[in-house]
Amino acid sequence: MPSLTAAAPRALPDAKVLELDRLSKHFGHLTAVAEASLNVGPGEVVGLVGDNGAGKSTLVRMVSGALTPSSGRIVLDGEVRHFRSPAEARAAGIETVYQDLALAPHLNVVQNLFLGRVHLAPGLPGRWWGHLDYRRMREEAAQALDSLGIRIRSLDQPVAELSGGQRQAVAIARAVMWGKHVLLLDEPTNHLGVREVDLVLDLVRRVSGHGVAVIYISHTLPHVFAIAHRIAVMRLGRMAAVKAAADTSLDEVVAYITGAKEGE
Fold first, then answer.
1. What sign has the CA pseudo-torsion 135, 109, 182, 62?
2. Is CATH 3.40.50.300 what the domain over 40-71+82-258 is classified as, yes or no?
3. DSSP per position, 72-137
4. Which phi and psi (to 5°) does residue 173 adopt?
5. C-beta contacts of 83-88 below 8 A and 24+ residues apart
6. pLDDT for 136-175, tens place per residue?
7. pLDDT per residue over 195-223, tens digit each?
8. What SS3 class is residue 141?
9. Are 91 and 83 in contact (CB under 8 A)?
10. How far apart, in Å, are the Cα atoms of 151 and each of 98, 109, 114, 163?
11. Looking at residues 177-194, what average pLDDT do you find?
């Protein structure tokens, strides 16, 4: 598990953790994504926005290994990667949190954080009988949550008993525990109340502070402007514009989304 205790270096203007170079995806005669390019630096949050069908989900699924690009390159830490599955992308340090969170509601917080990645007990109990080193897992879970400022009453309570914001926080914490490089967040504030939205947005800022590159997909533009360093707009499968959040406005982003303004 990567350490979350040390503060990460600030993002450098020219640093690139992830580079998407003219990625395209075709489904038969349908082009879902056409030569989309984007890069994300360490500790940078890039908001990815656009209407339904703009190509956002397809782009992210290519990065996460769920889809194979028809053409173009995915470059991670300077190395061209060809992911054949989400497992390969995760092994390379790319984690994705989808809207359904992929949490097991009847398992507790610790069990969810280590879902599919458990620590076996040392010696014969672990090797022969598959006994878990639950104490170690609990300690690492507490450390990971504390490093991100996540407060949960009991790590032994089922995830089903947590609020929506807390469940989202557990899913993000799990991704950060195992994702060394890149975190992809798909509509993380959907169906959350105001206080829970604030919790999730603050958590994304803290994740960024640990040096993780974040691509944040959302239809809720005020949330994107609240946390993103840059905003990438997709329209009809193409990257319509990539703007520094400080140099654009909600109205301008909406104009790119609708096609009222063309990419520069």
1. positive
2. yes
3. EEEEETTEEE--SSHHHHHHTTEEEE-TTTT--TTSBHHHHHTTT-PPBPSSHHHHHH--B-HHHH
4. -60, -40
5. none
6. 888 888 988 887 888 888 999 999 999 888 888 888 888 8
7. 888 888 988 998 899 899 999 999 999 99
8. helix
9. no
10. 22, 12, 18, 12
11. 84
CB-CB neighbours of 117 under 10 Å:
12
**Residue ranges of domains in the chain:** 40-71+82-258
Q: Residue 37 is encoded by which pair of tokens? A: 């390019």
pLDDT digits (tens, 9 = 90+) for 105-143: 899 998 888 887 766 667 666 667 666 777 888 888 898
Classify strands 45-49 and 30-40 as parallel, antiparallel or unpaired: unpaired
Signed CA dihedral, 177, 192, 162, 64: sign only: negative
What one-character-per-residue DSSP string does 207-247 give?
Answer: HHHTT-EEEEE-S-HHHHHHH-SEEEEEETTEEEEEEEGGG
What is this structure's pTM?
Answer: 0.83
In contact, 204 and 188? CB cutoff 8 Å: yes
**Contact between 63 and 182 (Cβ < 8 Å):** yes
Neighbouring-strand partners of residue 36: 23
